[in-house]
């Protein structure tokens, strides 16, 4: 299959659109999650969404992405609330709380999934796909939903940019000047949950976390400015969505989700090596040049170099 | 008899994971257990492609090696300035993606079911019997998981003191001359081996659940490491018993219910633990106020 005919195929166009928008929005939201040290929240939430999705299916009996979204959002909000409650009220640390909620919710989800399988065996195939994602079988309606929600997410991040920035870097100050930090915190969680839920559809539970984390970490290497980082992370995400989808439609039998994640990982590795100030190559060069022209440095210059 | 085997496998997986889980929870590294259990997938696939069989020790070593690589990579990115949890997330998802791609590339050669790997089916484990000299000597899973359980017990009890000190106070341990880094990687290779041993028979989710949840529950119940390990083992055995019973009643996924039961036990401990329970603390505070 040659390149040109690939892009003319309307079906591929849909999928390309969907995965690029998905990468864009999750990259943007992932940047905030990364700066707030909540990267693994995406992992926990994508696992925690499973029981919500199963319950939504059991209650409505339809496989509509809209009801799945509502179920998953409710489950996600419950999960974040539970993680917060456990870390605040007991000696359990946040990482263990995340792990507990992740596994227990997922376990309950699997129990519900088997219940669905046993009750009406013909109907559950779509739910099974939910675990590992099936970007290649996205239909027009799915892409519309993903595109619409991604656009809303990006616009919301743009509108609340100042607030999120403050919340990420100095929550104490944000509280001090009268911002409703708890509300904003919940709002950001809601955005993460939404991104996770639309992403699960395309790349699956396990790999959704990567779409939130990897582009953001890669973007962090290139810049010290938040707005640049957010834009870069969005671009990285969109680019990996593009590459992953194209490769998977050219090579037979390769799933889209892992390929999107792998292309994001390649971008990450390139960033680690080649980024201008924080990259490995730049640091090595700095070290070599510092060694070769060694001279007694003043405190000021040491500070400059080490930053 | 199958009931017995399934409960035994669950209890063995639970005990061997929760021993290690205690150390992971105390070191604030619970999510590393989650990461390793996902990232061993490419190791399993590669070992399978090389050796061509599922039961060889090669697979165990392949996965243990990948587990160590995972920990090493996480550490490396962390040292270069990436936040701890983000570096965990990047590494394990990348390796897991490699594993999934490998499985789909060699789908004809690899007889591994992805669904099964992730959420496992302990119910089929008893049928896969191990034969020795013509007579069956129990399911393969029991031997595999049992061996890793014994290995964990052996290593942890041999180096109990060293593990304890380097968990609670790594600086002190280093100054006493204990090779902290070595014990770190030793613990991580134990985690990888236990994960792999239990992986196929019970699925990643039960492994991760049994690593984190019973240990965290025990952490709420006691302040002593040796007791914490004992309690977490007992909790994991109880949850595999109860979990199997509930799954039998509901006709649901056994691994799923076992994990759900550990969650219920955790909830009970969270509220009613004699020393750290939320409700107990509230109640004693109120009593104190009344006395004043």
From TrEMBL, chain A:
Membrane-spanning segments: 12-35, 65-86, 98-116, 143-161, 198-218, 230-251, 257-275
This protein's record includes keyword Cytoplasm: no
InterPro entries named in the record: ABC_BtuC-like, ABC_TroCD
Annotated membrane topology: Multi-pass membrane protein
Keywords annotated in UniProt: Cell membrane, Membrane, Transmembrane, Transmembrane helix, Transport
UniProt GO cellular component terms: ATP-binding cassette (ABC) transporter complex
A Pfam match: ABC-3
Location(s), subcellular: Cell membrane
Any one Gene Ontology BP term: response to zinc ion
Family, as annotated: Belongs to the ABC-3 integral membrane protein family.
Function (record text): This protein is probably a component of a manganese permease, a binding protein-dependent, ATP-driven transport system.
PANTHER family: ABC-TRANSPORTER METAL-BINDING PROTEIN, METAL TRANSPORT SYSTEM MEMBRANE PROTEIN CT_069-RELATED
Protein name: Manganese transport system membrane protein MntC
Source organism of the structure: Neobacillus vireti LMG 21834
TrEMBL record, chain B:
Keyword Cell membrane: yes
Domain of life: Bacteria
InterPro entries for this protein: ABC_BtuC-like (IPR037294), ABC_TroCD (IPR001626)
Membrane topology term: Multi-pass membrane protein
Gene Ontology biological process terms in this record: response to zinc ion; transmembrane transport
Protein family per UniProt: Belongs to the ABC-3 integral membrane protein family.
Protein name as annotated: MntD
Species name: Neobacillus vireti LMG 21834
